[in-house]
């Protein structure tokens, strides 16, 4: 479960940063009428978000057996700025507690 947690944590940070970059790109697009940055960052974030979904499903559904509601919250976290960082901490604490009690 620890390796699935580490992969999830890395993806949560990457997706969180890319989402912030995408938000900045949206400001540039609509504030300065230049859509180039969105055209580049958008698909990259989209692909990385899909990898994030796989990491979260692997950890939450297969390894840690979270409730459907919590899993959906974690999955949606990659689409709301800053939420992936907050939930990453929560997920890490939750999984580490579970690992500690299983030992």
TrEMBL record:
Highest rank taxon of the organism: Bacteria
GO terms under cellular component: plasma membrane
NCBIfam families referenced in this protein's UniProt entry, alphabetically: integ_memb_HG (TIGR03954)
Protein name (database record): DUF3817 domain-containing protein
DUF3817 domain boundaries: 5-92
Location(s) in or outside the cell: Cell membrane
Record's keyword terms, sorted: Cell membrane, Membrane, Transmembrane, Transmembrane helix
TM ranges: 6-28, 40-62, 68-87
Its membrane topology: Multi-pass membrane protein
Pfam families assigned to the protein according to its UniProt record, in alphabetical order: DUF3817
């Amino acid at each position: 479960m620890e390796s699935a947690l580490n992969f999830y944590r890395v993806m949560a940070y990457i997706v969180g940063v890319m989402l912030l970059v995408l938000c900045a790109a949206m400001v540039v697009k609509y504030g300065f009428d230049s859509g180039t940055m969105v055209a580049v960052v958008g698909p990259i974030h989209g692909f990385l978000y899909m990898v994030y979904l796989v990491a979260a499903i692997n950890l939450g559904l297969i390894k840690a057996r979270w409730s459907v509601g919590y899993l959906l919250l974690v999955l949606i976290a990659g689409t709301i700025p800053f939420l992936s960082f907050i939930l990453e901490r929560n997920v890490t604490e939750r999984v580490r507690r579970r690992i500690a009690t299983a030992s």
